[in-house]
Amino acid sequence: MDLGLKGKRAIVTGGTRGIGRRIVDLLVAEGCHVGFCARDAAEVERAVGALGGGGQQIIGGTADVASDTQLSQWIANTADTLGGLDIVIPNASALGGGADEAAWRKGLEVDILGTVRTVESAMPYLEKSDAAAIVAISSTAAVNTSGGVRAYSGVKAALISYMSGLSTNLGVKGIRANTVSPGAIYFEGGIWDVRKREAPDAYAAAVARSPMGRLGTPEEVANAVVFLASPAASYISGTNLVVDGAQTTRIQF
Fold it and tell me: Is 16 part of any domain?
């Protein structure tokens, strides 16, 4: 299937590792011009070096989504260099596993306000696009209770609500908004890699709970994100696409 992404202009926050990096990789492979940011300048530089050479514009930047000034300036500079924006993918997350006030504050600043800042800074450019799409990254933790209270679950649930609200309010402008909720995703250096090494029983239990007998990969999540961001999904808006190998124990309506 031709996703219709060749020549489109996209930005991704948190684009140097894991799911974010695979989203960037796939957008580039589909012919997009891509800007991405992360906090680690060395990781950004390595990613740009690995992605270059395909003919598209690849712009890496250092920005903290918790900083309104840094983020808005990076988005403006990147969009101006790309000549506009068609796709916005807020992916950066605090990954807050606790439930104390510090975990809530970090989750609100990074996951929620970081996404809001990204969308609002990109909006003037998206309004000029004829194929505008926003895809936020939530989590199955937002829709499936799996244990104790965590700030992470709450902020990821709020993201789904935010994207739903955007979809109904921005549809008249031709801007689509969707969410992708990954389940347990394994990649080197990620949370489940750490658990595999430091808490092997918990890792084995997660694999055992999976009807597919394995955890997911960043590539499998990226496939869903890039499809929803593409013109091939032109009549899909306001949805939350779960990518978890049927691990969530609920009926999705």
Answer: yes
* pTM score, whole prediction: 0.96
The DSSP bridge partners found for residue 88 are 11, 134
Q: Is 121 known to be catalytic?
A: no
CATH code of the domain in which 228 resides:
3.40.50.720
Neighbour-count burial of 101, counting CB atoms closer than 10 A to its CB (0-12 exposed, 13-18 middle, 19+ buried):
exposed
156 as an active site residue: the answer is: yes
Among 139, 153, 167, 237, the one annotated catalytic? 139
67 part of a folded domain: yes
Give the model confidence (pLDDT) of 240-253 as tens digits. Answer: 999 999 998 877 76
> Has residue 176 been placed in a domain?
yes
Number of domains the chain is built from: 1
Three-state SS at 163: helix
139 is annotated as an active-site residue: yes
Query: Does the active-site annotation cover 138?
Result: yes
Q: Which of 121, 125, 129, 152 is catalytic?
A: 152
